[in-house]
Amino acid sequence: MAAPCVEPSKGGFSFENCTRNARLEQMGLKFPKAYKTGTTIAGIIYKDGVVLGADTRATEDTVVADKNCAKIHYISDNIYCCGAGTAADTEMTTLMISAQLELHRLATGRAPRVCTANRLLKQMLFRYQGYIGAALVLGGVDATGPNLYSIWPHGSTDKLPYVTMGSGSLAAMATFEDRFKPNMSKEEAMKLVRDAIAAGIFNDLGSGSNVDLCVITKDKVEYIRPHEVANAKGVKQGRYLYKRGTTAVLSSETKKVEFDVIGTEVKTSAQPMDTQ
Amino acid sequence: MSILAYNGAAIMAMKGKNCVAIAADRRFGIQAQTVSMDFDKIFEMGPNLYIGLPGLATDVQTVQNRLKFRLNLYELRENRRIKPKTFMSMVSNLLYERRFGPYFVEPVIAGLDPKTGEPYIASMDLIGCPMETNDFVVSGTCSEQMYGMCESLWEPDLEPDDLFETISQALMNAFDRDAVSGWGAVVYIIEKDKVTKKMLKTRQD
């Protein structure tokens, strides 16, 4: 590698490959697709707090890349965030804001508020003008009570009692519009969110697999993964093991792994030797 | 043609009983022309930790060098071997830093925890979104064929010798249905006390 061998890791994005990538595209080569979380994510405010729900499928074009990915991300002890859109963006954005919020908490000495996380997220997403494809449902309980926000990739936010995002959001929102009432009990709220996510899983092609739930109250957080295994994998009818020695091998080398010796103990016999 | 299919590659990793296996094809080609049949796509990052890099060949080598650099600094600072999960974070960060001008590689990581010996496999897309599974991971131009083979052949808790047969047959039959990958295969079976590297005899077309 020419030029500085030592990478100055200043943090933030690096644009060094952009000209080369543009030239590759000009040559006629197609740009590959990143993992998207097709997704159904939803959130609801109930009597004592917030219930967040998500499906667990990640797709790469039309192929299911991950059958059980976790879409409910930790932001702080009392705040969690569901992510839809480009999977890497939702993962990294929530990690970054979680770190920023922790530093903020240490600097102010107060428990973080959901509106702070919302402000940090929307300011970052707006700065990148929608190029960071992260659509989020942010929920938590803080000193002001339960709060729920939906955040769009371009940086707009909505503060609402119930929200849905992702490709299955229409199916989930239909369920909410039918059965939502303010001040539901915990069981009713969990059932409603589960039904909304299930509507997305069974009707939207981009969502699938299981339902994950996260119930946040003033005192505790229940991260239930999976809340329901809506689609269990079928049992294989046969074993397809090959006999040992089937594959033709040209050469084989074995390398022993050296163990790190961390301590040596030498025991001597209890009695001293007699010298006579 | 996609940028990832310019050079062609097929890599997969599987979990077994106290062991993991990672396998790759050996072709290096430029679109339709095969240039070499001994191109390394799996790199050793620790005595029990390997990474496979399918995709654009120049990025395979650049990412491998940059990663080794960061890993060396980590091991000098921490004075211990890196855990596979931490290494996965390191790769993810390296790729996400270039979110808007990415490296065209989709890595596959396989290893054992240096203390507990627990098997670990993970894969990523080209901008670093991690995916950890308990069965197998695949990446490359014939990923759909590899998904099919792995779903059929893999079962949990395979002994190292059976895991070798399973991963070899899954990989070979998958890349035989892909024009731009193949021309030889290499399989690493990683156990707590030894790593076995086998070269397979495959079709050369």
Automatic annotation (TrEMBL), chain A:
The keyword Nucleus applies. PANTHER family: METALLOPROTEASE TLDD, PROTEASOME SUBUNIT BETA TYPE-7. InterPro entries: Ntn_hydrolases_N, Pept_T1A_subB, Proteasome_bsu_C, Proteasome_bsu_CS, Proteasome_sua/b, Proteasome_suB-type. One of its GO terms (biological process) is proteolysis involved in protein catabolic process. It catalyses: Cleavage of peptide bonds with very broad specificity. GO terms for molecular function: threonine-type endopeptidase activity. Residues 230-262 form the Proteasome beta subunit C-terminal domain. This is Proteasome subunit beta. GO terms for cellular component: cytoplasm; nucleus; proteasome core complex. Belongs to the peptidase T1B family. Keywords: Cytoplasm, Hydrolase, Nucleus, Protease, Proteasome, Threonine protease. It comes from Elysia marginata. The active site is at T39 (nucleophile). Component of the proteasome complex. The keyword Hydrolase applies. It is found in: Cytoplasm; Nucleus. Its main location: cytoplasm. Component of the proteasome, a multicatalytic proteinase complex which is characterized by its ability to cleave peptides with Arg, Phe, Tyr, Leu, and Glu adjacent to the leaving group at neutral or slightly basic pH. The proteasome has an ATP-dependent proteolytic activity.
From TrEMBL, chain B:
Keywords: Cytoplasm, Nucleus, Proteasome. Component of the proteasome complex. GO terms for biological process: proteasome-mediated ubiquitin-dependent protein catabolic process. It holds the Pfam family Proteasome. It comes from Elysia marginata. This is Proteasome subunit beta. The keyword Magnesium does not apply. Its main location: cytoplasm.
